[in-house]
Specification:
Blueprint: E1 3-7, H1 17-30, H2 37-43, H3 48-56, H4 65-77, H5 89-98, E2 101-106, H6 111-121, E3 127-131, H7 144-153, E4 160-164, H8 167-176, E5 179-183, H9 190-195, E6 200-202, H10 205-210
Parallel strand pairs: 1-2, 1-4, 2-3, 4-5, 5-6
Helix pairs in contact: 1-2, 1-4
Length: 222
């Protein structure tokens, strides 16, 4: 067994980051807050509570948090039947599984949202396990989701590679002692991803698949 291939989903396997931005923007607006979309974009990938605190501050009225998060969930849910996967996302997962990598998802999504994302990717037959927000106390950038993914795959961090698209993904992987591969498909600049700990950067899943042998998934590493 080569090791664990751990994947974030939003912005990595599915083209959904900007859908989240719009849903969060409207959820904040409904609660009486004007939050710039670029600020929301940079916060995507955090769990709901951490995202709200980052954007509204620790001195906000926390009594609004649940309503804001619920509004985001409802608004984002309107996209479930048409979530787009990135080109060749499923092919990448199937190729890695064919090379004896255990594919595990590590995502802040859960429930119906996670089910919709998995349908979009269309590679359920090779996904061994999922570390979702329901399974951990702290989401990324905490190492906990990545550490859980390693345990689910039954491998040590040295035998795992994590693929994500945000600085939170890179920080989580680094803290967990896992090799970090960044994709630019989530809209975060290369320099930011590298500063956060990315060991390698690719344009998107198709680019990673085209260069798989020269990546951390290639012969030797893992």
């Amino acid at each position: 067994m080569a090791g664990a291939a751990i994947f974030d989903v939003d912005g990595t396997l599915t083209d959904t980051n900007h859908l989240h931005v719009v849903a969060w923007w409207e959820a904040f607006r409904q609660a009486g807050h004007t939050v710039p979309m670029p600020d929301i974009h940079r916060a995507v990938g955090l769990g709901s509570g951490d995202l709200i605190e980052r954007l509204l501050g620790a001195d906000r009225d926390p009594g609004q948090d649940e309503a804001i998060s619920s509004a985001h969930t409802v608004l984002y849910g309107t996209y479930f039947d048409r979530i787009p996967a990135f080109r060749r996302a499923g092919d990448l997962l199937r190729t890695l599984a064919g090379r004896d990598w255990q594919v595990v998802l590590a995502t802040s999504a859960s429930g119906a949202e996670l089910a919709a994302l998995r349908r979009a990717v269309g590679a359920d037959e090779v996904i061994r396990a999922t570390a979702s927000s329901d399974d951990v106390d702290r989401g990324k950038p905490s190492a906990e989701p990545v550490e859980l993914a390693c345990r689910l795959a039954g491998v040590t961090p040295e035998r795992a590679v994590f693929v994500g698209d945000t600085v939170w993904d890179m920080e989580a992987a680094t803290r967990a002692g896992v090799s970090a591969v960044a994709l630019l498909s989530g809209g975060i600049p290369r320099a930011d991803l590298e500063r956060a700990g990315a060991d390698a950067v690719y344009r998107d899943v198709a680019d990673l698949l085209d260069h798989l042998d020269d990546s951390p998934f290639g012969p030797g590493p893992g």
